[in-house]
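Researcher: Let's do a round of design. I'm pasting the C-alpha cells now; please hold your answer until I've finished.
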C-alpha cells in the first residue's frame, strides 16, 4: 500500500513539474530563453513521461497484489488524468515555443 502512495504522489509531483517548466520557460528573459529552451522543453516532456511511467508501475503493483476492485474504481480517473497531463504539457510547451519564436524576431 505504501508503494502506491509513493507512485501516485510522485506521478502528481512530476506532472506538476511538467506543467511548471514551460511556464518558467515562457516567463524567462530573452537571453535565457535562447540558451536553455531546448533543455527545458526536454525536461518538461521527460517529467511527463516519468509521471506516466509511475502510473503504469502503480497499475502493475495493483495487478500483482490482485486489487481488482481498486483497479476498476480508479482506471477511469487514471486514463482521464493521463490524457489531461499529455495534452496540457504539449499545449504549454507549444505556447512557450511559439512565443519564443515571436519574441526572437
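Researcher: That's everything. Go ahead.
Model: Designed sequence:
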Amino acid at each position: 500500500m505504501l508503494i502506491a502512495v509513493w507512485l501516485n504522489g510522485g506521478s502528481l509531483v512530476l506532472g506538476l513539474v511538467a506543467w511548471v517548466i514551460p511556464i518558467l520557460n515562457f516567463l524567462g528573459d530573452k537571453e535565457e530563453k535562447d540558451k536553455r529552451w531546448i533543455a527545458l522543453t526536454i525536461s518538461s516532456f521527460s517529467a511527463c513521461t516519468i509521471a506516466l511511467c509511475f502510473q503504469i508501475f502503480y497499475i502493475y503493483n495493483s495487478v500483482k497484489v490482485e486489487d481488482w476492485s481498486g483497479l476498476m474504481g480508479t482506471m477511469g480517473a487514471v486514463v482521464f488524468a493521463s490524457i489531461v497531463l499529455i495534452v496540457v504539457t504539449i499545449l504549454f510547451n507549444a505556447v512557450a515555443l511559439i512565443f519564443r519564436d515571436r519574441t526572437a524576431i
